[in-house]
Amino acid sequence: MRKLHVTQDDFGFWQLSLEEADGSLRLLAHRAETADHLVENARELVAEGRYRDAAVVVDPPRKTVAEAAPDLDNYTVPPPRKAGE
Amino acid sequence: MALVYWTSDGGGAEGGNAARVMNQWIRTKGNPSLIVYGGDVYKSGTDDNFAKFFDQFGRDVSLVCETPGNHDWLTTKKINGNKVPIGYEEFWTAHVSKQPIDAQKIAGARYEHVIDLNGWRLIFLDTGLTKDDRPWPFGDDSRQTWLTNAVTSESGRSKIVFAHHSRLSTGLHDDNIGVHAVWKSLFDTVTGAPRAALTLGGHDHNVSLYGPKSRDNVTGPNVPIAQGIRLLVNGAGGDSLYAEGDGTPPDEFDHTRFCVTRINLIDGRSADVDILSFGVNPKPTTEPEVLANFAVKFRF
Prior knowledge:
heterodimer, A: alpha+beta, four-stranded mixed sheet, B: about 300 residues, Purple Acid Phosphatase, chain A, domain 2, seven-stranded mixed sheet, 19 strands
């Protein structure tokens, strides 16, 4: 079963990753300051049939960008990530 | 010379810092003749969202117009029996701007308009409600007639079409079949010759540049510029970034930074289009970098 994972990266930004049935992962979106829009996007991808069979899995918030206080100049595109990791 | 700027998908309640920085640079250092916001005042086009948008534009939208996006259409109200995006409608009614509202028309037709600038025709459409199964012009033939007239009433092809949705795109949303009627309208009905130079959209939060595409094979290979129209997507306006998806692969692609599109209308036959990158962490002191691989020069 495919899954759409909404998770946070090490900077505190949110990202959306696709896990295929074979376990492979692909990053779909990143650098979002909140989870809301990505959750909406994930649900839309399911509802519109692009990933009709996918489950949407959302991590609980761990820290905000401000709390993580990273040096944002060092931000790079994160690798895809599964919820719960 | 006239400079037109485009940002999209970063105003309102999400992505506000990048939008604020880029718009401040445009206003203070960009010498703009026109600033186009390509749509989506997050999160749902409410009055509060537009208040934040107004702050991000330095509380001065006198040079700004907005092609509505899908998020603007999330807050609606019926006027004369037809839904309108009410936050959008009330904001642009209340402020001096370049965004007209034609109260004689219904729904999104109220916001579609033309600006003729330095020998170029700029055509602005409302594709905000577009889906593959809900195509523009949403059953309103008068909007198709209006677009056809906007394209054909001015000779030559020094025309640019601005809309939230691009016929070709890649990211979370991908190609938009729902604006195919717009694409077909930009070519001579008999010869298939292009009557515009460029379409510019957002919706997917990245920068994607396509070579010239023909009327009848838009997803196919590039064609000589004499036979096709270029497409540019820049939705990298501040609210997250989308990696490459399953849509038609662009010639150039970037999802690593926030960007502004600058269009230099040199004269009626010439224009340069550039992507200005503000990086992944825009600051008030950031000076943009021109991304050379995205540069386009039109010489007709």
